[in-house]
Amino acid sequence: MDRRQYTDRVLTSLRRVTAKEREAIRQELDGHMEDHMDALRELGYDEALAEERTIAAMGDPEEVGRELNRQYPSRWLVVKWGAQGAAVLLMLFLLSGWWDVLDNLVCYARARLWPGTFANVEWLARETGQGEVDVIEKTEQRAELGTMTVRVWQVGLDQASERGGTAYVAFSCWDEEPWAEPPGYIEVYNDADGAGAVQSMGGSWGRAYAVPAAYGDTLRVCWYDELDHQYETLLTVELPWEESP
Amino acid sequence: MAKKQTMDHAQLLVLSLLAGEDMYGYQMIVELSRRSDHTFEMKEGTLYPVLHGLEREGLVEAYQQEAPTGRVRKYYHLTRRGTAALKEEAQAWQTYSGAVNAVLRACPALGLA
Description:
The structure holds two protein chains of two kinds. Chain A is α+β, with helices and mostly antiparallel strands.
């Protein structure tokens, strides 16, 4: 057995080390044997005998390997491999466009379960300096737009009288197809006079609008069809007017 | 009651060698043999599991240094934590060996008293 074979036999027992650690151990053991052989050469030993005595002094390579192996707990290697695997998967995920799908799935969940996280009447009133809104109600009014569902989930009225006030509406939408694009332009108008929203906030999957309104008015939620260049009415939204102003 | 020993003898001896200066593996073997008057002549390969275990526990740290001959060696350095562990273990060892000696001295058959 020569030096190389000795280190090979030690390394055979090492199952929990990385390639870098394995190489470092090889270098260290080999360096040690080289030092020992140098000392023996200085004492007049020839090369073969110096190597033989050095290897004998090192001890059983399997035992050294087993003892070394115990110093490298497997959990670190598992964590390392796990982290590397996760990094590769993340890269593949980002590169393959699945990020958009994941984003859409998150928006889908928000639109169905927590529509207020996109925008809501309270936020819009606060943003526009209106402060407290007189009446805010949950509602459930839906329209289908292909595979997409548009849901008006909140309405509000402020300073509503016959002279007019402000009506609020918040909607969210989702698509059954996880890779679908957002619905594009959705607008809200006063059904009575066609007045558009004066304020709005939110994103493509959920918005809130403020529209001038007079007592008894209803609102229209429209989708702008970019191909046909025309608006399609999705919903007529009933507002929470009291019986008499 | 004195603290119990938690280290094996090889670990304690290695830490004590490094208390004086940083050393590489073969140097430790030679020095250990010299200081113990050739009593401790361990199988040299078994030094490395001890060193790597101490390194993993943070009691020693390693660095590479090139010798004048051009050979790059891995030196071991006793950390602050290693110094504290050495003091504690040396104390425990002295207590233990003192107790063993006391028992042996009291043994009439040995004639050590």
